[in-house]
Amino acid sequence: MRILDRPSPHHEPRRTGPVDILLIHYTERDLAESLRLLTEGEVSVHWLIDEDGTVYRMVPEDRRAWHAGVSAWEGESDINSRSIGIELVNLGDHSYAEPQIDALIVLAREIMARHPIPPERVLGHEDVAPGRKVDPGPLFPWDRLVAEGIAVRPGSGRPSGVGV
Length: 164
Prior knowledge:
CATH topology: Lysozyme-like
Structural class: alpha/beta
Order of helices and strands: EEEHEEEHEHEHH
CATH superfamily: Peptidoglycan recognition protein-like
Distance between the termini: 35 Å
Radius of gyration: 14 Å
């Protein structure tokens, strides 16, 4: 897995903890626009994965990135303080690239080894902000993450959280 540092200045100390959610997003933009937004805009994420599998480290995992927005899960409303955010370069209108998902699986395993994140708390933005967000969307290969033991989805014992 190729990791490049592309630091974002948009982060702050975590307010609550522990980190126990891995939150997956899609960018709705190409790589260049995503990198610009995530370093110059008022949004940030810990990790960004391009379609070719290149991983960009943007915010240190011990810091609070600004990726979840207004969101909630199982009674917690400061999802940014409790989560690691991963953005996948995808416009939301096509399947995810195999190298990208391969990199996501490796990265997710590493993150879950560093933090107490169970597969039940590997979530999509759509889970914590229903009605407001739809990413990573219907084309995201949750079944692959479930098969790898990284995630649990509806119908496979996943608890239902309470979104916003």
